[in-house]
Amino acid sequence: MTATESPESKCDVLIVGAGPAGLMTAAWMARCGIKTRIVDKRGTKIFTGQADGLQCRSLEIFDSFGFADRAWKEANHMLEICMWNPGPDGSIRRSDRVPDTPPSISRFTECVLHQGRIERFFLDHMKEHSDIEVERGVLPVSLDVDEAQVDDEDAYPITVKLRHLTDEEAMPEQAKQLGATNGDGLYRSNLSPDDTDDLIRANREKGGTEEVLKAKYMVGCDGAHSWTRRQLGFEMQGEATDFIWGVLDIIPITDFPDIRQRCVIHSADQGTLMVIPRERGLVRLYIQLNEIKPDAASGRADRSKITPDVIFKAAQKIIAPYQLRYNYCDWWTAYQIGQRVSPTFSLHDRIFLAGDAVHTHSPKAGQGMNVSMQDGYNLGWKLALTVQKRSSTRTALLSTYTPERRAIANELIAFDHQFSKLFTGRPARDIADKEGVSMAALRAAFDKNALFTSGLSVTYAPSNLVHVRADAAPADVAPPESPHANHPPPKLIPPAPRSPLATRLPLGTRIPGFKVVNQASALPLSLHALLPSTGAFRVLLFAGDVTESAQAARVQSFCAYLTSSPSPSSSFLRTHTPPSIPLNTAASPLQLLTIHSAPRESVELLRDFPAVLHPFDEERGWDYDKVWADVPSYHEGWDRAYEGLGIDRESGAVVVVRPDQYVAWVGSVDMTAELERFFAGVLRAW
Amino acid sequence: MTATESPESKCDVLIVGAGPAGLMTAAWMARCGIKTRIVDKRGTKIFTGQADGLQCRSLEIFDSFGFADRAWKEANHMLEICMWNPGPDGSIRRSDRVPDTPPSISRFTECVLHQGRIERFFLDHMKEHSDIEVERGVLPVSLDVDEAQVDDEDAYPITVKLRHLTDEEAMPEQAKQLGATNGDGLYRSNLSPDDTDDLIRANREKGGTEEVLKAKYMVGCDGAHSWTRRQLGFEMQGEATDFIWGVLDIIPITDFPDIRQRCVIHSADQGTLMVIPRERGLVRLYIQLNEIKPDAASGRADRSKITPDVIFKAAQKIIAPYQLRYNYCDWWTAYQIGQRVSPTFSLHDRIFLAGDAVHTHSPKAGQGMNVSMQDGYNLGWKLALTVQKRSSTRTALLSTYTPERRAIANELIAFDHQFSKLFTGRPARDIADKEGVSMAALRAAFDKNALFTSGLSVTYAPSNLVHVRADAAPADVAPPESPHANHPPPKLIPPAPRSPLATRLPLGTRIPGFKVVNQASALPLSLHALLPSTGAFRVLLFAGDVTESAQAARVQSFCAYLTSSPSPSSSFLRTHTPPSIPLNTAASPLQLLTIHSAPRESVELLRDFPAVLHPFDEERGWDYDKVWADVPSYHEGWDRAYEGLGIDRESGAVVVVRPDQYVAWVGSVDMTAELERFFAGVLRAW
């Protein structure tokens, strides 16, 4: 076929770029059965280098898709951060040890695994759940949006021309030896110019094939040089600094004692080195390159001066008097520190941008891949429910994407700006040295940012998806202390409004994964295991102590309401479950989970809990996986979920959790009218 | 090729039968690189039914091969046992709840997974580590042993003729619909005659192909009707009872409240039902068939009278007044209770028998597959080290197989005899009813046998592989209480001799998997994760508090001895490591692991621990995975391994662990002469 023939095809969602943000979006599409294309200009996925840090929250998300165990098994777990700074003699010495991840905030801790493996898990997951496959060596070359059609939910207002590259074009020389000691480590660095336009031009000249694709929605996950963003005309805002850092992935041979710890080494006058221990004996070194400065006119560094040897020699000077050498280098690169963010992340709620396409910053805190994936995680279910026509209106869910994620991008940029300055600054010689960075300041920054870097401080502001009642405690009032040692202290709970019915559960944050015990089988499981990423909203009925007759009556009455007959008096559960789907089943967009606080042996599933809470199926019998107890387990202790969330053990509460595990609504079993209103704003009535 | 042509081939080990015992043996061969053939007369692995219970110890073993996580993820976890018996009105009612697995004895709890999945994990593991593949539709038809050659370690004294069946023969009609409601559930039951001879005869008549195989060693894992055992002329000893039980794997539809628990339901006069909840909503029911009795003359039941419907109706009567029905049956069978054991398990330490080939019993306590696998686990490494000529003599390791495993088989038979009687007996009407089984007696049997059924009570008697010094506390003296709540009480520690240097660590039992913290990275890991099944003996140096100078000197002196120059003064470590292999590396048959008790931040790996404990490699640098601390971890508490094992925190101890994780020797760092003698009795000097 020549380029003049342009077959036309259709899809619901087109994803441009198969990095972490694109793959995360595609994972949702795969789980929700959305007709999706995902294209990437590169001929292969990456095999070495690139991003590697995995935050707790990213692992929780992987777990919600069912593959956290693969990442957890292969990754290097980082437990401790060691700080090194100059001693009285000017030599570096260890000044502090702190836990890398604060205890008790997640089932997971930060860990490190090569981006290529993470992409592999996504690809396997997509294959398991759908026929969506990444089309490699394919890139968009033109984009048109028919504005007249953007409000029509059945329309395909987006027209994209896709060019199919030859294998040779999709796999340039640099990529073939990417990052190896003799390869070009700067290919994909922000020190290198973008090659997208060259690829398109070369392909046009050769007459490669072209295809016209009509799409309902499009997601640009095409990196810092985003072609999609350029078509939309969004300008990144922010600036670059003069600081250039090198990166080496090596198997180090050294007498430095903390080479298997995450370290920040601030030398007296040779700059800063960061150590990130990795899988397979590898260690990543981030090295400040004091001797290389960007050209004053162009703002860019001379790339020819940056080699693995230059980077390595800088590292040796910082880590002296310890010896450091290596025989094996897996990858290397260099980058210029800067922070930039796009003013908006979407056009007409039809075209969206995610990941590096809308925020760029320095990689040292291991945030980039995580925040990018979390963009895709925020967007994916909203897109899927909208395509499925389960959203109350076309934009009810989608319109929250930009405000929710741009706020996070802004926080990230601010964090990175502050953190990079502390990293790059010269260490203070003494207390009087006000221009230097004191170790105490660096330590304080680590402590303050521990929650941020875990990804667990993400708080979405009030909207139709995060309902804050007038009686909520404001964000600046700290949550109460928990009486139990295994619950996080208030400073590890994100500052956000909290309902008086769940005083330690901030609205707009992800619900913590406390362990609960299955009523029918005694199995202890994390609450998160009950909230897989399927696209369903969950109503968590904290039923309280149902052995108390007054409380039992309240729960019975709530359940009677839930199953009340069709309109005018039908419940939100009936209103928002399509008529063809039985209430509260796996196929339903709205599901119930019960967590009671009564002694498990004092209640019986079939006797004490109304049928709607554990529905009956003619083939499978009763559903035994929907009623749980906050009680001690035989082997895994007692997590005391009620206390941890600040919910009263007698009277309970109702918590609505979004498909992405974020808390959307907190109330009591009596507030049914308000629940109706909440769901009317997000899900379609049938 | 016709049957008259018989090509001759050679292998080190021939395994007959690819069930759990055979596959476990093959897993060792795969890990140790032994030239192995494994044949099975059946044309496929099984897909439904058969064994399903997985003990803690089996999961620990899977973990030592690296695939416990797959089993753990797919299995149904059994947490609680509910006992039901007749109330005053004669109706069944719940009388007791007990934990299925006693807390704190293992990282795992008992769980249930279909045998076919477990076989799949083994097959995948073999594929990952070797080119050993199960040859299906292949069975031995003749066996000769050249007795003149049995003592020659280079000889192939075993000659076996193997016949290769056609696909049609290897896959009989019954197998094709195995266990389905309309299929023959009794195919493979002990109520059915063996078909091996028919298969051979039919194949001979059709002129199938034949092969002559010479082997150094042979392992018969060919089931209760073992062809191999028959060739050796070993007669099973024991007897059958009149009791016949049926088995159904169904998705039950019921109002019985404990259908997702393990239950024993003793009805007043309709017999006993056992409930085993399984994966995918399935439940296995074991049902006493009171109305079917074996024929007095033949001792066999009339198989035509046993149908799924007959079995199910019996279950309904026992569980009444609760309702029970089903739409889906995955598998069914029936069996006659009996206990039999073979008088010996090997011939000339050249041919070995394992699994059902040497012990048969009733399946209800979920022991069969586990004990069979553990036979293979005990034998495999001994066989591999012998073939590799690492055993001190040809029979030094192999001669321990029969005594170690026959003792376990005898315990199993005794356990099953007692347990089956309690299960099958009529429940006592009241205290005066001496002929009935009291619920208290059944509960006591469950409590007493909890350790046995977990597989963790296995204790190998003193031998060259289990060294018991004169100063050991005898088996009948209970180990001391631990001051820490998370350590098992003395009744959950197997009764066996214990060294005064490790007062809670019985000799000949598997070492517990206490969590320790990596000195270099702060990673907490179970001790078991440091003892993978590679075939290596491990010397665990509990180095004590090395911040105390006297103790540090003792450890230095032990390490100086370890690396002392070649003979006459060379250490056991040098003597038993082949000269081509660096000391204490992954390839070595003898490895060191250090667990110290000093505060982790007070010691440095490179400064405080001699190099032999964390050897240097020119490509990989220092080994950071060999020195660990018994200290609190940031996220997973403090397991207090020293206290749990009864080792003094100041002065430590040395513990030798066999390749199968069983404790072989306990002493102090000063007892080097005794360590020499121990290793001289098991490993070859170079």
From TrEMBL, chains A, B:
Gene3D superfamilies: 3.40.30.20, D-Amino Acid Oxidase, subunit A, domain 2 (3.30.9.10), FAD/NAD(P)-binding domain (3.50.50.60). The keyword Flavoprotein applies. It holds the Pfam family FAD_binding_3. InterPro entries: FAD-bd, FAD/NAD-bd_sf, Phe_hydrox_C_dim_dom, PHOX_C_sf, RIFMO-like, Thioredoxin-like_sf. Residues 475-496 are annotated as: Disordered. Residues 480-496 have a biased composition (Pro residues). Keywords: FAD, Flavoprotein, Oxidoreductase. It comes from the Eukaryota. The keyword Phosphoprotein does not apply. Residues 10-415 form the FAD-binding domain. Residues 459-683 form the Phenol hydroxylase-like C-terminal dimerisation domain. Coiled coil: none annotated. Belongs to the PheA/TfdB FAD monooxygenase family. This is FAD binding domain-containing protein. It comes from Phyllosticta capitalensis. The lineage of its organism: Eukaryota, Fungi, Dikarya, Ascomycota, Pezizomycotina.
